Here is the input.
Amino acid sequence: SHRAAELNKLKRRVLLLCVIMAESEEICLMNLGKRCSYAECRRQDFLPFQCEKCKQDFCQHHQSPSSHQCINANLGNVVIPTCPLCNQPIDLRRSRGKSIDAQVERHILSGCTEQVLPLPSEAAGRRRASRCAYRHCRAVPLVPFWCSDCQRNFCVRHRSAYDHRCAPVPVVPPVTCH
Here is the structure.
């Protein structure tokens, strides 16, 4: 639209300058800018876009990862499949190269015992310890908030001393012998 019109004006001016300079045997301005890295385009662009995924330069038409079929388009997009029977996350790290469907099938055929991804708070003791200490709250926070007054963990909702009706642990003075 407006940017495309401005780019076309700039390109026409540069081409005109290039023709004038070529006649005077000076360096051509066509060496400025960069060529689109998309193999089927290779258009000279004076305001190229750099792809955040593959770090190559592209013209306006091929700037998005999908338009230039970026090889790193899915980099950073991690998919962790869950078993449809037991709803546990499946560990894909052990058998790289196999399809996700084949790994889920292997998990199911094992009776939902193999390739189970261990969760950080999987152990019952840790889960119980990280549960919110507020009475009747069953939340298991990802990041527990430690109260330095009552020495217990709380969820986001009960993190302040006022919200969990904090009763500080009494400090027993040290016993001294005279």
Observations:
- The chain is about 20% helix and 10% strand.
- The first strand starts at residue 34 and ends at 35.
